[in-house]
Amino acid sequence: MGKLSRKMAKHQQKNKEGVVNQEINSLKQQMIEQIKEEKYPEAIETMAGLAQCKCIDAEVMYQGAYAYFMIGDYERAGTWINNTLTYAPNHVAVRILLARLCLLEDRIEDGLAVFDFVVEHYVSSLTTAERTEMEEILEYYGRNEADKLQQHYPHIAKFLQLGNIILPEPEASPVVNEVAAAEETVFAVKADSTSDDSIARAQAAVAALKNLALKASETVQVDELKKKANTVVENIGTKAGQMAEALKDSVNEAAAPFSSGDTVAEQTKLIQKEILTKSVSLAEKIRLFNAFSGAAYVDDRLEDARQLLNAALELDAEDPATLRNMAVLMSAMGHYQQALEYVSRLPVTDFVLLDRLHQR
Fold first, then answer.
1. Is the pTM of this model over 0.70?
2. Cα separation, 94 vs 84, whole angstroms
3. DSSP E strand stretches across 24-173
4. How much of the chain is in helix, strand and coil states, percent to nearest 5?
5. Please, is 199 exposed, middle or buried when counting C-beta atoms within 10 Å of its C-beta (0-12, 13-18, 19+)?
6. pLDDT at 8
7. Which region, left, alpha or beta, applies to residue 3 given φ > 0 means left and ψ of -120 to 50 means alpha?
8. Which site in 7, 124, 231, 358 is 20 to 30 Å from 307, CA atoms measured?
9. Is residue 101 a contact partner of residue 80, using CB atoms and an 8 Å limit?
10. What does the alpha-carbon distance between residue 118 and residue 41 come to, in Å, rounded to a whole number?
11. What local confidence, expressed as pLDDT, does residue 339 receive?
């Protein structure tokens, strides 16, 4: 290709990109206007158009989460809240939306914990509208549960000016702030407050914090970082162990499912047997298989994780959560085409998941 041809091709490519960018900006503005006019179904359709333009934008994800929330589709709202936090962990508005979602689903303690986190880390950056919204929501708890707020949620208590609240001095190290953000991102994953889901979240938190420690070591003194990060990991690991014991009791009330001589493969088979024979609903069995698979995934026992997910798919071959987990697992095992096959079986195409697989 000659110099002139290369120049023309480059010019055409820039023009094409410019047209796409104009379309994306137009759709973004359209979505904002639709949200303002409370045309939430239309806003969701616009988000789908942005996805077709391969637009991965945290603000668009937040607007989508808000639209789903306002039409009462709390499951999809939770999914898009988590997507937003994945790409923008410091997005204040989506954290407030997460807190509102928790309160609506009677996860009061979770909702208050998120609000307390927002006040602790972002109170100075709250807009007038955000501050007013939080005051209106929290006023009820300040009036009826002031003692609990002062004892367990001191930042909310200070925000509402309840009594004389003395807050602990914040840590100077940037590790603490990043760890808090990592914990909050993990917490944002929408799940029922059952032990099987809790262990999966706790195990995921451990992995997230270990990755955080590796990343932060490039900019912070290594010794200080390890001390801070390891403390948090150990605390979460302790909680995960406690939840694992509770979950083991749930799977087999009569006796522990393992014997000291069992190999890991034998333990996996015993887990499958215990779950399949347990007198619980089909959905509960699928959740248990996914929870134990998540624990195996964190421990790098990928084949055991695959067996457990396969068992879940035998119960429901179209369960969206299991299909998503299997897609991530296949990608981790190096089976990219198989991962895409699982994605293609999802009822709705998940662009965030596709982007994650594409980046591997």
1. no
2. 7
3. none
4. 75, 0, 25
5. buried
6. 55
7. alpha
8. 358
9. no
10. 29
11. 87
Cβ-defined contacts of 310-318 (< 8 Å, 24+): 311/272, 311/275, 311/276, 312/285, 312/286, 315/282, 315/285, 315/286, 315/289, 316/282, 316/286, 318/345, 318/347
pLDDT at 118: 94
Q: Residue type for 98, please?
A: L
What distance in Å separates the CA atoms of residue 137 and residue 47, rounded to the nearest whole number? 28
- pLDDT value at position 230? 52
Residue 98 and residue 62: Cα distance in Å, rounded? 10
pLDDT of 106 reads: 87
Q: Which amino acid is at 39?
A: K
Residue with tokens 């290369």: 6
**Long-range contacts: 60-68, Cβ < 8 Å, 24+?**
60/28, 60/31, 61/87, 61/94, 61/352, 62/88, 62/91, 62/93, 62/94, 62/97, 63/31, 63/32, 63/35, 65/94, 65/97, 66/35, 66/97, 67/35, 67/40, 67/41, 67/43, 68/40, 68/44
Concatenated DSSP letters of 235-273: HHHHHHHHHHHHHHHHH-SSS-S--TT--HHHHHHHHHH
Torsion over CA: 22, 85, 325, 73 (sign): negative
* E strands present in 74-163: none
Q: List, in order, residues 6 or more apart from 33 with CB less than 8 Å away.
A: none
Q: How far apart are CA 245 and CA 59, in angstroms?
A: 40
CA distance 44 to 64: 6
Q: What is the CB neighbour count within 10 angstroms for residue 18?
A: 10
Which candidate, 267, 117, 133, places its Cα nearest to that of 181?
117
Phi-psi region of 161 (alpha: psi -120 to 50; beta: other; left: phi over 0): left
Those residues of the chain that have pLDDT short of 70 are: 1-20, 164-264, 359-360
pLDDT given for residue 341 in this prediction: 86
Maximal CA-CA distance, the chain: 79
Distance CA 308, CA 127 (A): 46
Residue 271 identity (one-letter amino acid): I
